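worker-3 :: picked Aldehyde dehydrogenase (NADP(+))
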Amino acid sequence: MDLTGKMLIGGQAVPGNRDAIKAINPATDQALEPGYPGGSREHVDQACALAWSAFDSYRETSLEQRAAFLEGIAGQIEALGDALVDRAVAESGLPRPRIQGEVGRTCFQLRTFARTVRAGEWLDVRVDEALPERQPLPRPDLRQRHIALGPVAVFGASNFPLAFSVAGGDTASALAAGCPVIVKAHSAHPGTSELVGQAISRAVAAHDLAPGVFSLLYGSGAEIGIGLVSDPRIKAVGFTGSRSGGVALTQAAQARPEPIPVYAEMSSINPVFLFEHALRNRGPALAEGFVASLNQGAGQFCTNPGLVIAIKGDALDAFLATATQAVQRSPAQTMLTPGIFRAYANGLQALAGNAGARVLGAGLEGAGPNQCQTHLFVASAQDFLREPALQAEIFGSASLVVTCEDAAQVLQVAEHLEGQLTATLHLDEADAQAVRNLLPTLERKAGRILVNGWPTGVEVCDAMVHGGPFPATSDSRSTSVGTAAIARFLRPVCYQNFPDALLPAAIQGANPMALSRLVNGQRQS
Ligand code: NAP
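worker-3 :: tokens ->
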């Protein structure tokens, strides 16, 4: 399990020929060996050629074979043991238990997709049998199944070096759909990426799959990233990161002769609405819960509660007093990269310099480099509505409380919000009508609406939606977490009047795969 500093192209270790990227331990600012020379367009071409040649055989692997492969990846990752945890801790500055938890989440995710693949519901089989006697025209025999889109380019995220990176949710769902995957490693954690890439490559070999099913490339977004998105053999993209990065990749995908879908998860400030009775009955407890959520992972979560909205009054004052004290007690935490720390510091500076916002409190200063100091700001609804800059995401433990005159202004603020991954409601029974008034707006704005909890913590399950209107994501019709994420990498094909022997097994008359199907309008399980 040595780190080689090389890319993995169809299972082969290939050295790059551009400047070497070295991970920086953000807790010490020390560079970590080895260096990872970046790849060039020729490496993109090699990986895409292999992925394309693997596509037809991989997408027709049996459900059992594909599910076993996903489970095999999970087993290979677990076998990496402490070597993986040690490297991920050093590259991310995240605490060891968090990284251990992420290994578990990554493997659980892969196994959950294995279960989804086996169940076969994603094939969404529909059969409309021929009606030769129908008047005025006969109906032909029509059968639909879903097939994989084609090779997928995945951009590993900095803030989840395992669960949203090389073998994370995008890779797992694309492989589950039957798509070969080429990952552009995030430059913040190249060693973690190599270890996980080696694990996937071992699983590819152990399951006798075409080597092009998986490749891992290093290098810059401008060369490797745009190169992948522009390659005609890439048919979809999964991305988690900044708004500017997601928009650039979406535009590159749209500018192709054959445009392709980009599933980019980008920017969300995750509004939290504190309703009148909940605030009055348990304001201080809500304040403690809020600051605990704000501080999780140094606020480097896409679901970080970056905005709180409530009506002015004594109850809100009590909430703010407790929240400010909790913020002032908050220890500093190491951020993921020096770049993310700089972006956080710039975001704080911009907000502090905005005439509409006022600092309520700041956390303890850290001793080492790249320390995130928690910050809480307040602004009036009037200023929030006037100043677009007050809606900008500050990636880290910073949040803004917006104080409203009345319920009508709360609704106005909600209408003014950009698209969000989540909206959180703290309510008591007596708040029901106020919630009903707000809900239609929030349904239009957010992918997940939650009650009396905190948005951080995203369950991997069938019902999860981790998505939302722009700029939360580039395509609000999908989720990047949970089993429904597989749908992003599938498309329907209809077979008309085919002889049964020429049909794929999923839609043959005798239903040899024993799939749940919609036959002549009736569900048959
Ligand atoms: P990032 O800068 O968007 O980078 C993510 C990946 O996309 C990297 O591999 C990067 O390549 C590539 N990329 C970025 N811009 C590109 C472009 N214009 N063309 C082609 N490829 C491009 O994200 P990050 O490094 O993880 O974090 C930077 C900021 O993103 C944070 O400060 C935060 O504001 C935001 N962020 C948000 C979330 C969220 O969930 N909301 C998560 C993570 C980060 P390179 O190797 O060239 O950098």
